[in-house]
Fold this protein.
Amino acid sequence: MSLQPYVNKKVLVLTADGRTLTGTLLSCDQLTNLVLSQTIERVIRPPDDEEASAEVSHGLYLIRGENVAVCGLVDEELDAQIDWVKVRGSVVGGVKHS
């Protein structure tokens, strides 16, 4: 499936090492290399962690295709209603196997 219909739209990317990134997809290629603008990494902490979840701004961001596990559109209206700093959840594991 081509990601071209997602260009200039807000996407969420889960990486092979388990990171969660959101941003506007500026460009993609046949190797699934992605360029995101206004990129934010969401660091979701488990319920028993005393540290709060966080959103870390990265701005313009390039993700190599080999590191993309999942890419999907974000429902921006729903996304805006969520206070991501208060969200708790299980850590998403990576997809690379040894």
Q: What stands out?
A: The helical segments are 76-81. Residues 50 and 75 are 29 Å apart (CA to CA). The longest strand covers residues 34-43. Residues 76-81 form the longest helix (6 residues).
